[in-house]
Design brief:
mainly alpha, transmembrane helix, transmembrane, membrane
Length: 150
């Protein structure tokens, strides 16, 4: 039982570490690419990477699929160039979306472990209370039969 709670704690820590790495990578890599490509409009990629978790949280999958198809059509017509604003914004968005998926997965695992542990602990507590009540009732009945026999 204690090992499961330790595992849940590890999953929570992994989610926090993963978010920290995502935050640092986003804040470091996007400005680095903007500098390397000499296109400071790419700094708006920061906004796109932080908007993606909102899309994930609000469950806007239809919009996500529509945007993906639109970007693929754009690449077909214009060509795939990573330093292009739309392509870069899309990859920033995808980076944030995938990271949010990982974080939700780890937190979900931790939540399942904790809820299972809580239900097991609750059933053990209820069983313990019932056995105590039975023991007390048996002692009362035993003392009543002993007193009536005298």
């Amino acid at each position: 039982m204690n090992e499961n709670l330790k595992a849940a704690g590890k999953f929570k820590r992994i989610a926090i570490i993963h978010f920290s790495v995502f935050l640092i990578l986003t804040i470091v890599l996007i400005p680095l690419f903007a500098f390397l490509f000499d296109n400071y409009w790419l700094l708006f990629g920061l906004i796109f990477s932080f908007v993606a978790p909102i899309f994930k949280a609000e469950n806007l999958k239809k919009v996500f699929v529509f945007l993906t198809v639109a970007v693929i059509i754009y690449w077909y017509n214009v060509g795939f160039i990573f330093s292009d604003k739309i392509t870069f914004y899309w990859f920033s968005f995808i980076f944030g979306y995938i990271n949010q998926s990982f974080i939700e997965g780890f937190e979900g695992l931790a939540g399942k472990i904790i809820s299972n542990q809580a239900s097991e602990m609750t059933s053990q507590i209820v069983d313990g209370i019932k056995s105590k009540e039975k023991f007390i009732n048996d002692n009362k009945n035993g003392s009543n039969t002993t007193a009536s026999a005298n």
